[in-house]
Amino acid sequence: VENVKDVGNSGNVPIIASLSKLEETVIQWFQSHPSPPVAVLSDFFIGWTQRWAEKLDIPRIGFFSTRALLASVLTHLWRNVDALIDSSSQSTVEFPNLPGSPSFVKEHLPSIVRRYKKGHSDSEIIRKGMLANSKSWGCVFDSFHALEEAYLDHVKKELGHGRVFCVGPLSFMKGSESLRGVNSDC
């Protein structure tokens, strides 16, 4: 699999969990390399790479291909996942500590959280990785300040520092593949 999008939503958890098992191999490569990397830049889905950065004593920057709103929702959900599971009769989940105090119908919450199984090894890798994102040296979002000022400020407050950056929007609209080209040497 070259891209997680090719495995579909149900394939995310096994792929993320499998990648986490490469830790020792990657750490050994980092340590043996004549010019080792000076930072880790990794997707928010693989937040467990924060452990790599800590072991190597280098900073990790989490890249969020989503908006700061979703990152804030995910952080809240993972910190309170037991309450979410225990509230099976509740149809709406409230986020009183987020800007604007949003609420969402439970079925509209991210499936990666809804599919969480307490104690299941793959689920725990996901949960711990998502929580590790808040330990990152910095975060980069596919967003822009004017769109999400309140949520970006919230993320800065949650992280305890101001190293929160926007580089978006990076996503192209559907049908724009011809603008990007199809070949890649990567």
From TrEMBL:
Gene3D superfamilies in alphabetical order: Glycogen Phosphorylase B
MF terms in GO: UDP-glucosyltransferase activity
Regions that span the bilayer: none
Family per similarity comment: Belongs to the UDP-glycosyltransferase family.
Protein's name in the database: Uncharacterized protein
UniProt organism field: Opuntia streptacantha (Prickly pear cactus)
Highest classification ranks of the organism: Eukaryota, Viridiplantae, Streptophyta, Embryophyta, Tracheophyta
